[in-house]
Amino acid sequence: MRRYARIVVCALSLLALALSVAGCAGGAQQNVQPQAQGVATWTQSTVSDFKQGVLQRLQIERQADGELTLARNAQGQYETAGVYTSPPFAPGAPFSMAVWRWEADIPAGTSLTLTVRTSADGKAWTDWQELPPDEDVQSATSDWPGHMWFAQGARYIQYRLQFASSDGRATPVVASVTWHFANTAPGPTVQEAMQMVIPQGEGPGVQRPAIIPRRGWGADESLMTWEPKYEKPVKIIIHHTATPNDPKQDPAATVRAVYYYHAVTRGWGDIGYNYLIDRLGNIYEGRKGGEGVVGGHDYGFNEGSVGISLIGDFQSEPPTEAMMNALARLVAWVCDRYGIDPTGRSIFRDLDLPNIAGHRETKSTTCPGDQVQNRLPALRERVAEIIHQQAPSVRFVSPEADRALSGMQTVAVQGGVATSDITLYLDGKPVQRKIGTALEYKWDTTATADGDHLLKAVAHNARGEEASQSMMVLVDNTPPQVTLLINNGASYATQQTITLTLEALDVGSGVAAMRVALGDNPAAAPAEPYRREVVLTLPDEPGLRAYSAVVTDKAGLTSKPSVAQIFYDPNPPGGWTEAALSTTGEIAVRVRDAESGLEPASAFAAWSTDGGVTWGVWQDVSVTPEGHEATLYARVPEAATSVRFRIADMAGNLAESPVYLLPCGECPPKPTPEPAPTPDIAAPDLVVSALEIFPPQPEAGEPTLFRVRVRNQGDGPAPGCWVQLYIDPSVKPYVNSVASTLGVGLLWYVPDLAPGEEITLLSSEPYPQFGNYAGSLASGMHSIYVLADAYHTEGDTGLVAESDEQNNLFGPVQVQVQGSGPFRWSTLEEWLSRWLHWKP
Q1: How does pLDDT run across 96-154, given as a tens digit for each residue?
Q2: Are 367 and 313 in contact (CB under 8 A)?
Q3: Is 83 exposed, middle or buried (0-12, 13-18, 19+ CB in 10 A)?
Q4: CA of 39: how far to CAs of 42, 159, 217, 264, in Å?
């Protein structure tokens, strides 16, 4: 495979076109890629691509996709010359820049030349013009761009490659030719750009000349991808753009073309020059970033230099007087601002260079043209004259105004070139005097009291004229302090999200930044702006966690670390044991907490005398702690039927024990639940077989009775259980729901029922402790439910293990009660006789 030298040749055409044009009839249309803002790319790289052109004493080899070479003669040697002429091409939109690139191998003894012509209508063509390499912007790579080329009114383009071989033993090889087209002509005219000029500066020293900013000449900032860098300039390098000196060409459009050429075509990300000057004397801002930004105008010499380019070609034609006057004003301002002696010279990047140099003094190039290079000695003298005509100037380079200072500081003062001496004052007292244009003072601020101080620099020139500048600075050598709290000083956390509070104090410059870390090394954490509260998430695993923090003030001083700890425990105590009767007659249970440990003072017990329907208040208990475990002791009254305990851990997680049943004489019977039947064992099945109401249509206030029938329809015996009747419950009844709590109700205890046995329950014979039915109903519609096997303090499926647990609920039965009125029977005796007849 051949190795190709990559050579890029560019031609820029500024066209006064505003309308898109169609491709030329019969012209090349292959590999056309439309892009944004009327930009397109045209590539010829394949056999079929090159066959669209005209080949003279050339051949297309089929290596890779296709390559152009000189043809071989009858003796097997290459022809000494050949020409490839491309088909005419129209990008499909107006273009003001055409950039040509080839991939080619050019051995010694061979040459390859590019010529190009354009047409406004695809019929009448200009003469062929050669595009030589542009030596002004050579780089360290093999990419060589061509001179920017302008053609008025061109809509079509055609190129020609001329191959040559001195002895026929070698040939140039072209693998591809690519053209990039962009329309940079639209934008502000020079007259419009001048309306946005940055006015001339004010103050002592050489004034900044008026400058047209980037937005004034229409810079498309989306093309700017170069990250600005800064370095104090010590040299000024003069260039020319090598573009035609056409007075009809709008210079603002030329600046836009140079910008696109450098930023996109060359891939530099921005225009290379810091400033450009046109024939009218207008100065344009170039590289983005302001004063001191490093340009991209002279490879290897960009850092520490300012690049200024004159728009035009000045190899044989002289620059205009307005251009040279503007150049002198601009260079004088730069020299005065940075203390550059316009007539001096020094070693710069291993070269002995004048402080104001032409590009040809650092590179093998004709730039900035003979007519400018020959004028540089006079330019240096004129710049020196401008500077020395001015009053002295002085400015602080460091520190920045209003900045807080600590420790050893460098106070740097820069005077203009006309400055002969500088004196620095601290709080009105002179601390250093320097003959020359610059002064640096090493200031140990620890020898100065904290607080505000006045720095003043006074400069003189040879005529005794004076200039001064003052600035206030804050000395702060007292580091800040910080106290770290977690959840306002809590020792434990039950939630994973915590709040860190940084109580910071700085009596000087104020707190600026903080570092917060998990662990005891906050210096390893990234710095971030100070804020008083920080919300963090603890690691998932429970345990002790330490956080640390430091704060830094505006003077750069850092506090001592502050460390706070918190124990993360999201889990409540557990592991409750079975209740046991102690030797002292107390009920004893054990409980444990594996993380933060138990809090004995939080232990309580409560008991119930009605089987767990209602509970008494929580009472203190005795606690015997044993590490992460504890035994709780409760002395309960004899009437208690059940007891429960609660305790919290040190983190505050509260846990409640299971309900423990106790033996007692007055409790309702508590049959032991039967184990759940297996498929091959007979099982009971309790259902409510009937619900009757007497009288069937009661009136409000009239005594109303209920008769319930419960049947065991299973094939196994049913142990004793509870049955509840609910009147207008707030929710649908369920096991362990108390009728008297949900609304109004009755409770019965049913003894053992054999298979097929049925029992009748009357509202006049309920279990007395758990009913609240008053004997009559209010007017309106009422919903009545009955639930068999309704109560089990240690489970949620009743006491009886049934073959069907889903058919225990009966209802609702709707009962309409009429408005209040007299009994329908004349005497109470008649009502009682009917009741006795209804009662089974």
Answers
A1: 777 788 888 899 999 999 999 988 888 898 889 887 765 544 443 334 555 666 666 67
A2: no
A3: middle
A4: 10, 19, 20, 12
- CA dihedral 766→771→774→777, nearest 10 degrees, is -90
Closest CA to 558 of 527, 536, 531, 535: 527
Instruction: Quick: pLDDT tens for 255-273.
Output: 998 998 888 888 899 999 9
Kindly report the CATH class assigned to 190-340+352-386.
alpha beta
CATH of domain 394-475: 2.60.40.10
Distance CA 652, CA 599 (A): 8
- Which tokens belong to 422? 């500088």
Q: Which residues contact 135 (CB under 8 A, 6 or more apart)?
A: 363, 364, 365, 366, 367
Cis status, amide bond into 812, omega within 30 of 0: yes
Structure token pair of residue 588? 């004893």
SS3 371: helix
Question: If you write DSSP's letter for every residue of 115-158 in order, what string do you get?
Answer: EEEEESSSSSBPPPEE--B-GGG--SSS--PBPP---TT--EEE
CB burial string 181-198: b at 16+ within 10 A, e below? bbbbbebbebeebbeebe
At residue 163, φ and ψ (nearest 5 deg) are -95, 145
Instruction: State the greatest distance between any 2 C-alpha atoms of the chain, in Å, as a whole number.
Output: 147
DSSP 323-367: HHHHHHHHHHHHHHHHT--TT-EEEETTEEEESEEEGGGTSSS-T
Residue that has been written with the tokens 């997680």 in this structure: 653
- Under 8 Å CB-to-CB from 275, ≥6 apart: which residues? 211, 283, 284, 285, 286, 306, 307, 308, 309, 330
The tokens describing 536, both together, are 């963090």
Helix or strand holding residue 726 (H, E): strand 721-727
User: What distance in Å separates the CA atoms of residue 557 and residue 414, rounded to the nearest whole number?
Assistant: 28
H helix runs in 609-746, sequence order: 739-742
The ranges assigned to domains in the chain are 5-182, 190-340+352-386, 394-475, 481-568, 580-661, 686-834
Q: In the CATH hierarchy, which fold is given to the domain comprising 686-834?
A: Immunoglobulin-like (2.60.40)
Q: Does the reported pTM lie above 0.85? A: no
Domains 190-340+352-386 and 686-834 share a fold: no
Taking domain 580-661, whether its CATH number is 2.40.128 is answered by no
Strands 54-56 and 81-85: antiparallel
Task: Match 């910080």 to its residue by tokens.
Answer: 482
Measured in whole angstroms, the distance separating CA 800 from the mean position of its chain's CA atoms is 62
CA gap 750, 545 in Å, rounded? 58
Q: What are phi and psi of 197, to 5 degrees?
A: -65, 145
Through-space distance between the first and last CA atoms of the chain, rounded to whole angstroms: 114
Cβ count near 169 (within 10 Å): 11
Fold designation for 481-568:
Immunoglobulin-like (2.60.40)
How far is it, in rounded angstroms, from Cα 514 to Cα 502? 9
C-alpha triplet 412, 417, 418: angle, nearest 5°? 115
198 pLDDT higher than 50: yes
Q: What angle do CA 702, 704, 707 make, to 5 degrees?
A: 170
* CA dist., res. 82 & res. 816, Å (int): 115
Q: Which of 142-151, 210-219, 251-260, 441-450 is least confident?
A: 142-151
Q: Is 26 left (phi over 0), alpha (psi -120 to 50) or beta?
A: left
Amino acid found at 459: A
Give dist(CA 240, CA 372) in Å, integer.
8
**Overall CATH class of domain 5-182:** mainly beta
